[in-house]
Amino acid sequence: MKYALINGKVLNGHKDMEVETGKTIFIENEKIVAIEPYRNLDKSYQIIDLQGKYILPGLINMHVHLAGNGKPQKKQKDNEKTVKMLLSNPLSQRITYKVVSNFAKIELMSGVTTIRTVGGIAHYDSKLRDEILKGKVIGPRIVASNEGISVSHGHMAGSVAIAAHNNEEALALVDKAKSQNVDLIKLMITGGVLDAKEKGVPGELKMPPEMVKAVCDKAHQLGYKVAAHVESSEGVRVALENGVDSIEHGAKLDDEMIALFKEKKAFLCTTISPALPFALFDPSISNASEIEKYNGELVFNGIIDCAKQALENDIPVVLGNDVGCPWVSQYDFWRELYYFHKYIGVSNCFALYTATSLASKYVGLEDVTGTIDIGKEADMIVVSENPLDDLKALRHVEKVFTRGKLIDHPKVKINKIVETELDKYL
Fold this sequence. Notes:
It is a single chain. With 426 residues, the protein is α/β, with parallel strands linked by helices. The chain has helices at 79-86, 90-109, 124-133, 167-179, 209-221, 233-241, 255-264, 275-280, 283-286, 290-312, 333-344, 348-362, 416-422, and strands spanning 2-6, 9-10, 24-28, 31-36, 45-49, 54-57, 59-64, 112-117, 141-143, 148-151, 161-164, 184-188, 225-230, 246-249, 267-270, 317-319, 380-383, 397-402, 405-408. It has two domains: 2-57 and 368-411, Urease, subunit C, domain 1; 59-362, Metal-dependent hydrolases (TIM Barrel). Helices cover 35% and strands 20% of the residues. The model has no long low-confidence stretch (mean pLDDT 95). This is Peptidase.
């Protein structure tokens, strides 16, 4: 289709963005071909009157697990056992892939036009990426890592990551990822809140530094960036010293770590959403144990400290909501922008820039998406209110454009319990 979008208030996604009026956005062959005052058009264009609503770049969620639904849970599940069952026969594999595909579609319907997956089931993320590109299914642009690399009894081992018992096995997993044509490599370097057995050890170092280095060296030789799950200061240091390109989550930094970030040209992916329920909810609501509550607060504060320190020291920060964790739904990425504003103290404009233009740069798609500019693919969303005034405007998306294709009045099914409890922290 060829579209002419008229009467919209444009937020272009740039760092200094302001509302622009009086401009028509022309879309042709998936791309933005002109942004200029309205002119007479030939009949091949379909005119869409935005009626004074706000149009901005589609959001980019930099930390997604497509295997999870985000539902609250009363007790921990055996994820390894569940995944083994899901992959046990062809029928269950087809059903599981369909579930993953549906979760990706929910991301798109909520205004997220690009996702970066950092741990998934089998090769489903890259398979889905390719089917979306071919137009076989509807979904966002996917930058895929497939299964992460963990260690025995390490974070997510057996579910969305595979355990490597030595360097040779870890390097074999890099080769496996390459054979699946992934876009990046994901390491699980430390533990997390849900797999910590004692207070104070949610970010316990699990992966030996020499394994981190071996994987990073090989990944870089093959042209891949490496992202790492890290929830402790020690983990941040080990990751950066040995070649990791992005720290996912983070922890309090010291001067040496700040210097390493800059030396390695690494960036931080902040994820406030998954830690917030464990840290701030009453345990009667979150169903967190005493240990999980304590460790949740530790990780929550560490993520906030890390993001603040990064911004103060000109270290790039992008946003992901670790979707799939308890209380983090596939349609709720807008909350991460809101938390970034509330807990880190950035402006609404900077939060929006971080989740669009800046994210496109650090996901390697700066020339493709992330801003409303001529030559970019038409990945855009329309909302009624101005997100520069209130980021909650992003929770109700009225139109989504994905590669120039229009989805009008997208709908997602909301979990009312999750919505009610999370809204208390807006």
